[in-house]
Predict the 3D structure of the following.
Amino acid sequence: MPQKKKATLSPHNSLLAAELFGSPLLIDPAKLEALIKVLGPKFGVVGGSVIEGQEIDLSTVEPGQINMLGASPRSSHKSYQVIEGVAVIPVVGTLLHRGGWMDSVSGLTTYSQINRQLDEALDDADVEAFLFDIDSPGGQVNGAFDLADAIYNARSQKTIWSAVNENAFSAAYLIASSAERVFVPRTGGVGSIGVIAIHADQSAFDEKAGFKFTSIYAGKKKNDLNPHQPISEQATTELTTRINDFYSLFVSTVARNRGLQESSVRGTEAGIYIGSNGLGLGLADEVNSAEFVLTKLVQQIQTGNNGPKHSMESNMPEENAEQEKEKMEDKQKTVDINSARSEGEAKAMAYAKEVTELCSLAGFPSQASQFLTASTPIPEVRASLQKMKANQSEDQDVENTLSGAGKTGDEAINLEDSPLVKACAKIGEDMKSQHR
């Protein structure tokens, strides 16, 4: 039977407890309730960090060892992982403004840590894009909005996506929304765009435990929200004002990040939206797992379709893209022109053959060259030949000849032997060979 450890005060939980009560929070109420149950009785008294009855040896845990996407360990000189050009930055657990490197082991992530990773990766030549790997109920107000602004502004430098894995609530959603695109899994949730504060009145607990606290202070608001006495009406009004101010900032920031109307963001009423339910409200862009999103972003980099200044369809600079477009159009025109030329050549050959036949049948073979040079339409050729025959008082012979009722047998004209026909055929063959 394992020996029962003496209760000790965790520095991380002590820090969390100090911010937990009497301060506005951007956190999911369910998580807040869980924290209160754990930390409320003694403000951070825990029995050590234990997993399945075994205490964690923190000396063996490297900073950032835990990774939600299961990627290979990061290099020793980087505070984040780089996977095929993508910097994966985890946003996991309760979020605080500041802390230490053991926060990830303690279930905490700090805004200062995320901001530091962001700055380093922006200057990292190996990083072409960011993926925020988010699974957090939210956390502290302090530092959250500065981080959101930093992520939003960094969008102009490198591609930034957020993969909800599995939840992004309150402050975590504030971070997620700052990216260019937000992906959520089918069972994951986004939202909880609201602010909450809890005042812990432990005066009854103090009395039962035999403690009596006396506050000596200057300035009538200095003792507001003292946990050792009931909250005053004045303190309630002050705290409500702060909450409303932070809520307005929260709403306006999300509206900016997502390109939404503030009224639409307020209309969510701090609700939580699972899977595709958040898409219709504009809180997310696509339903997919974090692993799929990472693969998709890596593929985008490898195919060259990456960068905030590039479209998803082309990775070429605007001038090159326009030139390439013109080349494609020219190529298409060339194909069309060649087709038209072939068709035109066939028509020209048929026209020359018909004119030559008509002139030969009418008895005026030398006239064919004049008709061909002038491109005389066939109906006009027929009319001219008939007129020429009429002048010779051979109207009937011309009609019979043109209708095919003229000479027959040995007397019939052999067009294949006509020099003009042969010359036209040769011209046609030469034209074809030039365009092959």
Remarks:
- The mean pLDDT is 75.
- The first helix runs from residue 11 to 20.
